[in-house]
Amino acid sequence: MIGLYQIRNVNITKTKETPLKDDFNEVIEAVKMAFDINKIYIKPDINVEKLAFLIGHPTRATSYVINNYFGMNFNQLINNYRIKEAISKLENGYLKEFTIDALWSEIGFSNRTTFYKKFKEFTGLTPMEFVKKDQSVQKETPANKIEKKLFNHIVSDRRKD
């Protein structure tokens, strides 16, 4: 699994059912670039037709690649990327400066309800539950435990002096 989608190891070749004559590797790379580099998923009105136009490939070929290479439909792919972005922002302290409402609109969701529903589907938690859990996990990491032991050891050595 890479990111939030599972890359299928498929050999996409032209058959009667596959769309047009496009070079599917070219379409795959263009879709990856649109998502990973250009962050096309933050546009709230993005759809497969607009994506296809932006990457310069037919809609049918773009949709075919998303379904067969990424193993999900366009809306699932968009929502996975949006939730991945939300998780990254939350883990990096986004809520110290901004609100949840700013977050869902910034990452491309058109309303709070859909954001919460998709976030919970993906993580099993609401965004605030995720933040609280993430903060408690950060407090008790192995590195933090080692740091505490070292600090306690130094303090106890100083008390002996």
Automatic annotation (TrEMBL):
PROSITE patterns the record matches: HTH_ARAC_FAMILY_2
Keywords linked to the UniProt accession: DNA-binding, Transcription, Transcription regulation
SUPFAM superfamilies in the cross-refs: Homeodomain-like (SSF46689)
Database matches in Gene3D superfamilies: Homeodomain-like
UniProt keyword Transcription, yes or no: yes
Cited InterPro entries: Homeodomain-like_sf, HTH_AraC
SMART domains, per database record: HTH_ARAC
Domain HTH araC/xylS-type stretches: 25-133
Coiled coil: none
Pfam families in alphabetical order: HTH_18
Protein name: HTH araC/xylS-type domain-containing protein
Organism: Belliella aquatica
